[in-house]
Amino acid sequence: MRRVLLVTAAVLLAAAPLAACSRQDGANPVRSLVKIGGPFSLIDMNGRPVSEKSLLGKPTAIFFGFTYCPEVCPTTLTDMTAWLKALGPDADKLNAVFVSVDPERDTPEQLRLYLSNFDPRIQGFTGTPEAVAKAAKAYRVYYQKVPQDGGGYTIDHSSSVYLFDAKGQFVEPIAYQAPPDRALSQLRDLLSR
Q1: Nearest of 132, 157, 135, 134 to residue 144 by alpha carbon
Q2: Residues with Cβ < 8 Å from 45, sequence gap 6 or more?
Q3: Angle (CA) 166 172 173, round 5°
Q4: Looking at CB atoms within 10 Å, which of 63, 132, 181, 189 has the fewest?
Q5: pLDDT at residue 34, as a whole number
Q6: Which H or E run contains 65?
Q7: DSSP string of 7-34?
Q8: Of 61, 8, 99, 97, which Cα lies nearest the Cα of 184?
Q9: DSSP 8-class letter at 56
Q10: What is the pLDDT of residues 111-125, one digit of tens each?
Q11: In what order do the strands lie in the sheet with 161-164?
Q12: Which of 176, 174, 170, 154 is nearest to 59 (CA)?
């Protein structure tokens, strides 16, 4: 857990010096010169092909994790569920996406079963190990398989939810366990663009 938070902080801090320094007005977040997001070719939890183009037209909140995650993923998906509920009807104007970084275990069926515990608007994406690696690289998401005693494994991974506008441009992250009011404010700002 601590390593996940440290890695996420390191990734975000590494991008910070590259961020643009000026704003057009006080309402818009600073745009990063570091490209976050890009092409991917995955499948959804119903086995249908999806790409970055599938998300265009609506703002997107996207989170990378895995269904066997003991803490970060269920906590974040529980938070996302609460945010969507708090947004009310406006939540239907948002893509909420969970991308698995564990394609070996996270089949479409496993994603569907796991995500049935959360808001039904949260979509699950998976794919081949190569396709997942390409998507994670495009979104600057860290993940690494960590062997455990007994032959099993867990996965260290980034813990932020990334926000994109309706045109697929990165806006800002929501930090892991951000205060609910802060996260909701970020989502409302995203929806008002």
Answers
A1: 157
A2: 108, 109, 111, 112, 115, 123, 124, 125, 126
A3: 115
A4: 181
A5: 72
A6: strand 60-65
A7: HHHHHHHHHGGGB----SSTTSPPPBSS
A8: 61
A9: T
A10: 999 999 999 999 999
A11: 49-51, 41-44, 122-126, 95-100, 60-65, 161-164, 170-174
A12: 170
| C-alpha span between 165 and 170 (Å, rounded) | 7
Is pTM beyond 0.85? Reply is no
118 vs 79: CA distance, rounded Å: 9
Region of 22 (left: φ > 0; alpha: ψ -120 to 50; beta: rest) is beta
Query: How many C-beta atoms lie closer than 10 Å to residue 96's C-beta?
Result: 24
**Mean pLDDT, the chain, whole residue set:** 88
Q: Which residue reads 């366990």 in tokens?
A: 177
Which residue type does 64 have?
F
Q: Which residues contact 104 (CB under 8 A, 6 or more apart)?
A: 129
| Rounded distance between C-alpha atoms, residue 162 and residue 157, angstroms | 14
User: Average pLDDT of 104-114?
Assistant: 97
Q: What are φ and ψ of residue 146, in 5° steps?
A: -125, 115
Place of tokens 């996940």: 4
Mean pLDDT on 29-54? 87
Asked whether residue 20 carries a pLDDT value surpassing 80, the answer given is: no
| Encoded tokens for 61 | 């909140």
DSSP 117: T
**Residue closest to 69 by CA, chosen among 21, 123, 94, 106:** 106
